[in-house]
Design goal:
Elements: H1 22-38, E1 56-60, E2 63-68, H2 75-92, E3 96-102, H3 118-135, E4 141-145, H4 147-157, H5 162-168, H6 180-188, H7 192-205, E5 210-216, E6 219-224, H8 231-238, H9 245-249, H10 266-273, E7 274-282, E8 289-296, E9 311-317, E10 329-337, H11 343-353, E11 376-380, H12 387-391, H13 393-399, E12 404-410, E13 419-425, E14 437-443, E15 464-470, H14 483-493, E16 495-500, E17 503-504, H15 517-522, E18 551-557, H16 559-568, H17 590-624, H18 627-640, H19 647-716, H20 719-739, H21 743-746, H22 748-752, E19 756-758, H23 759-770, E20 778-783, E21 789-792, H24 795-813, E22 821-829, E23 833-840, H25 880-890, E24 894-898, E25 906-913
Parallel strand pairs: 2-3, 3-4, 5-11, 16-18, 20-22
Antiparallel strand pairs: 1-2, 5-6, 6-10, 7-8, 7-10, 8-9, 12-13, 12-15, 13-14, 15-18, 16-17, 19-21, 22-23, 23-25, 24-25
Helix pairs in contact: 1-4, 2-3, 6-10, 7-10, 7-11, 18-19, 19-20, 23-24, 24-25
Length: 917
């Protein structure tokens, strides 16, 4: 019997085609109305994989409630389809307790007298089916939702007319070809490693701290422990292309991380990677249920509309399986991969997301103790060669780019053990250093820094270990790193972290100035309160402290060990390293202050040695630079300090300095001009030197032949041979006379030294150059006559000789108990003997004075500098005194250790034949 609709406001015959047609649209409308009535979204099984018993259903503790929505307008076809669906549902689902039948019309009254109405027929069918189920032991409720009931639900739940517009609106909308999804993915994403990186960025935006990627045969699995995707977010964001919610929110909801995506195209990466995707996600708000989504992209065909792509989803009861202990997170399984994955692709994947990954190892900390900096990615790819190394390649490149490395270790501190600090500088750091340099220092705890750490207080730490890397965040970076990315990475993850038995304490990171480096830089401190005076150098060396954005380091401690040891020795409160109640930092007690001072001591030690090396490099550079360049630097310094000088004085001084600069330039130009003219003469000189060498060989040969012929002539009594021998010997004499012409060219004294230099000015110049390297040393010229002069020699000779003597004196004074002091004196003995003496307050020769000549042998090293002071010692190769003797002998100077003068430990004397006075 036919039936017709009643009401004119909504006509289900005019429902707009959705998801393939009117039938599918009606089913979807009924699903949404049922969900709005139940307060939850209902699961809609796949058509290709479904059971054919219902369009959608809802699981609960009392059983399954299923809906059937046949799109028919006649009673008999409705009853026939409903009977078939119900029979199948009862067989397939033993927990089925309620069956709801939705249909798009209202049953009418009968057309003939005493005939049953359509409503009566449906009620009779309902009671018969319920009775049959009860006879089988199944309690079943059948609910009928005719068109009038559906219209009432629309009026009740669709106050904004969203459903009316969606299913019954008359406006025309754009249609999008479903194949556009694939084309969009190819155009906007382009490469598989970028597509997979988008999924990892989604995990980062979801506040995940741990993520895992598994590469299997034709399958990729991505796990994370983020906050998950709710049903509402799935529909509002994941199912919509081009969403802008990340642009609006800008920060993640938990850790306030800056969002990595903003275009709403991340879900396109899934379709770009594989043909099938399964997504499961549980949220932090409701871990008892989780979202399940399945998409088969192979059904996307050109010419079909986008809304025909079937996304199967449901909310499932029960917790989902995750590789971590958290109850929330997301798991994505990609099957039927569209591209192959190898070492190169894994490396590119690492390049895409390295800026999000922290440099420290995965933390073994509780969930509540993690921070937004924690985002650790584990990769499992057993069939991809060196996958882990490739994934970490760019990140590792950064940590191979350090310029200085600081290592520190404290063992048995409570038993009096000292801490050892080791410092290494790479070549060319500071600029101008040709070779790597290393320093070592030992220090006892507590380090004397203020009243809280008096010299009599005991060490409150038993053990600690740390390593700090210093970077140069300017210029070209190796490994393909952009300097801007390096700065950003160190800004987020730099500074020194603290690990307690492998657990990273969240408080210590880039934003925490727990070592007071930034504070002291802001105060413009120039000298350390922690370093002993012997480690101080001239200059404002503390300004070279590396900022937190230039370092990365880790301190390892064990609070359990520290607490146990403190209890055994009955130490008082605050006498050991302890965690604060929040377990995110160390309690600010005396032990913590000692640990902080130890780590900060190493940074101050770095700044001191850096300034010393930089000063040495600058001195070398200045020795090589032209006079004009030196004067130019003087002009720059003068201009920089013009406000500190009276205007008239500044003007006069600057005028004279600029005039000196111009004169220096003219002199250099004249020198260059003369060099061009002298080039042929230099070539001739080189040839003459070569000829002189050859003449020496030939003279020797001629002399030998002449002597042999003389002997033979005498034995044979041959006058003719004797005459030939005399001729050869006469030729030898002429050759030797010719060789004297080249003597000035091979005599270094004639080439470089023509005058006797005054001792006093030479000593002053050397002391001025050495003073920055010998802090705290007092220099005194006790009695050096003003007219005392060295023998004929170059300034380079006497400069090198005195520098070696002062270096030896510095090393000898490092471990001496007396205040470091060097004295110079000199004079005359008799009529012709002149002398000059250098004395120091060091530890002495270490050998009797009679054995002192052995110290002049090359590589002879008797002085042993303590390990504590080895980092500031000079030289150390055992060649200093050998060079002194070599220079002295070339200038006919006697060099020897003599009996020390009063108040000093060692005296070294140079003596030579001078002029009569």
């Amino acid at each position: 019997m036919n039936a017709t609709e009643t009401g004119s406001e909504i006509s289900f015959r005019q429902i707009l085609p959705r998801l393939g047609g009117q039938r599918e649209a009606f089913e979807e409308l009924c699903r949404q109305l049922a969900g709005l009535s139940a307060g939850v979204s209902l699961v809609r099984p796949s058509r290709s994989r479904g059971d054919g018993a219902s369009e959608f259903y809802l699981e609960s503790a009392s059983g399954r409630r299923a809906w059937q929505a046949p799109y028919v307008f006649d009673l008999n076809p409705l009853i026939r389809q409903a009977s078939e669906s119900l029979s199948t549902a009862l067989e397939v689902h033993p927990n089925l307790t309620e069956f709801v039948l939705c249909f798009p019309f209202d049953p009418t009254e009968p057309a003939v007298p005493r005939g049953r109405s359509g409503q009566e027929k449906l009620e009779s069918w309902k009671h018969d089916r319920q009775a049959e189920a009860l006879a089988r032991g199944r309690k079943l409720i059948i609910d009928l939702w005719p068109a009038s009931r559906l219209r009432e639900l629309i009026r009740l739940h669709d106050q904004a007319d969203r459903l009316r517009d969606q299913f019954f609106g008359s406006s025309t909308t754009f249609t999008v070809d479903a194949a556009l999804l694939r084309e969009l993915g190819e155009q906007l994403i382009g490469h598989s490693h970028i597509a997979l990186a988008e999924l990892l960025k989604n995990s980062y935006d979801a506040d995940a701290t741990e993520c895992r990627i598994e590469f299997r045969d034709d399958e990729i699995i991505v796990w994370d422990n983020g906050h998950g995707i709710s049903e509402q977010e799935f529909h509002a964001h994941w199912m919509r292309l081009g969403t802008t919610h990340k642009t609006v929110t800008r920060e993640s909801r938990g850790y306030r991380r800056p969002m990595t995506g903003s275009k709403g195209i991340g879900r396109l990466s899934v379709q770009f990677l594989a043909d099938e995707m399964t997504l499961e996600s549980a949220t932090v708000n409701d871990a008892s249920r989780h979202l399940y989504v399945f998409v088969d992209w192979t059904g996307v065909r050109r010419g079909e509309e986008l809304n025909t792509v079937n996304v199967l989803w449901q909310m499932r009861d029960g917790t989902m399986s995750l590789p971590t202990s958290e109850s929330s997170g997301t798991r994505i399984v990609l099957k039927k991969l569209r591209s192959e994955w190898g070492t190169e692709a894994i490396e590119k994947l690492g390049q895409e997301i390295w800026l999000l990954r922290p440099p420290f190892a995965a933390p073994q900390v509780r969930r509540t103790e993690r921070t937004g900096l924690d985002f650790h990615i584990d990769i499992d790819a057993p069939k991809i060669l060196r996958a882990r190394e490739a994934f970490d390649k760019l990140q590792n490149a950064l940590f191979q780019n350090w310029k200085a490395k600081i290592r520190g270790r404290l063992r048995d501190g409570r038993a009096g053990g000292e801490a050892t600090i080791e410092l290494e500088f790479k070549p060319s750091y500071p600029e101008g250093q040709e070779a790597s340099r290393s320093f070592r220092e030992r220090v006892s705890l507590p380090i004397n820094a203020g009243p809280a750490a008096s010299s009599g207080s005991p060490c409150a730490i038993d053990g600690a270990k740390f390593e700090i890397l210093v970077f140069k965040t300017e210029g070209r970076q190796p490994g393909g790193l952009a300097v801007g990315e390096v700065r950003e990475y160190l800004r987020r993850f730099g500074n020194v972290s603290v690990y307690d038995s492998g657990f990273r304490l969240p408080y210590y990171g880039a934003s925490q100035d727990w070592l007071n480096v930034t504070r002291d830089q802001g105060r413009r401190l120039i000298v350390s309160d922690l370093l002993p005076a012997r480690l101080n150098v001239e200059g404002r060396y503390l300004l070279d402290l590396p900022a937190p954005g230039r370092i990365f380091g880790a301190v390892e401690i064990d609070t359990n060990h520290e607490r146990s040891l403190a209890e055994n020795i009955h130490a008082g409160p605050g006498e050991s390293l302890q965690l604060s109640p929040g377990r995110d930092r160390l309690a600010p007690n005396r032990a913590f202050k000692q640990l902080r001072n130890l780590v900060r001591f190493s940074l101050d030690f770095y700044a001191s040695r850096y300034r010393m090396l930089a000063a040495q490099s600058a001195e070398k550079a200045r020795a090589r630079e032209s006079p004009a360049r030196t004067v130019r630097r003087a002009v720059v310094v003068l201009d920089r300090n013009r406000d500190a000088m009276p205007r008239a004085v500044f003007r006069d001084v600057r005028r004279e300095v600029v005039a000196a600069e111009k004169a220096s330039k003219r002199a250099e130009e004249e020198t260059d001009r003369r060099a061009v003219l002298l080039a042929p003469l230099a070539t001739a000189g080189m040839t003459a030197l070569a000829l002189n060498h050859e003449l020496a060989r030939e003279i020797t040969l001629v002399s030998r032949l002449g002597e042999r012929l003389t002997a033979v002539a005498a034995r044979l009594d041959a006058p003719e041979l004797a005459e030939i021998a005399r001729s050869l010997l006469e030729a030898e004499s002429r050759f030797r006379s010719l060789q004297e012409l080249f003597a000035p060219l091979v005599s270094e004294e004639d080439r470089e030294a023509t005058d006797r230099l005054r001792v006093g000015p030479v000593v002053e110049s050397v002391v001025r150059a050495m003073r920055p390297l010998m802090p705290r040393v007092s220099f005194e010229a006790v009695d050096v006559p003003e007219d005392l002069r060295f023998p004929v020699g170059s300034f380079a000779d006497w400069n090198a000789l005195l520098q070696n003597l002062l270096s030896n004196a510095w090393n000898a004074m490092l471990d001496a108990e007396k205040d470091p002091s060097v004295a110079f004196d000199g004079g005359r003995r008799g009529r012709y003997q002149e002398w000059f003496r250098v004395s120091d307050t060091g530890v002495g020769l270490g050998v009797p004075l009679g054995e002192a000549p052995a110290l002049f042998e090359p590589f002879e090293r008797r002085l042993r500098v303590s390990e504590r002071n080895r980092s500031v010692a000079m030289g150390g190769q055992g060649l200093g005194l050998a060079l002194v003797r070599l220079i002295a002998s070339r200038r006919s100077v006697r060099a020897a250790f003599v009996r020390p003068r009063t108040g000093f430990s060692t005296s070294f004397e140079l003596s030579w034949k001078g002029a009569s006075k």
